Amino acid sequence: MESNHQEEKLNSLDGEPMSETVLTEPTQEPQSPEPMEVHHHAHHDHGKKNWKTYFWEFFMLFLAVFCGFLAENFREHYVEEQRVERQLNIMVDNLRYDTTRIGRNQMANRFGITVLDSLRKEVMLIIQGKKEYSNFYRLREGLNVYGEPRFNSSAYTQLTTTGLLRLVKNDSLIIQVNDYYERVTYMVKSAVEAANLTSAKVNEQFNMLADQTSFNELISAFRASYPPLQDTAFDRLKEKVFATAQLRLVNSSPTELHKLYNDLVQLEVAVKILESRMDYAKSSAVKLMNEIEKTYH
Description:
This protein is mainly α and 297 residues long. The protein has helices at residues 2-11, 51-127, 134-139, 154-162, 171-209, 216-221, 232-244, 254-296.
């Protein structure tokens, strides 16, 4: 009864009966389900491939590799041909250098041959009894006057060591190149060696006969220079020595004089052979230059 009394008291608060309150939760509208994504899968044919499919796949792969190989091979071949042409252009420059040097050395050869011829005749006069030796000593200065050309073979060495010479288009050109650098230049070099050996013999024999004491003052005043320079003071002193000194021989034996004469003959012949081979080398160089320019220009 106490509980009922409390309920009545609560209901009669403020003199107004409390209406019974019903608490309701908010209603939620039903949500429609989101549409599901539909995934379309490609239908693969998992059937067995026939031989034609394999063949075409292999053929296309082979064709791609083969074309790549051809392109790379063509590129390398093009690069090598450009290197060959560049080296042949350098070879033309080398050959121009050779012809220039040969031309200068030929001038020295011709002067040397003239001196040797005069000295040989002077020795003959001394053998026959001439006692005046100024020409004998003057001409002695020309004993070593002859050309020793130096060939520039840098391009040829590059072509042979790298194997590029085989790519030269013209077989006749390859033959000419090898002939010039292997045979022609060797001919000239061997002629130079022969002249050097004979010249050494002549100088040794000359020194056995000559008396150099009269040139003591001249030797003291001598100054070497390269390239040679004109020294007027030295030239005046030299003329004074030849004019006033008592020039003589330390050995006037006919036997030794004949030996000197024979050595001079051999040297003169050697220089003339060198001159002819240098002339041949120059014409060969010009011919080779023309062949290169005709083939690659």
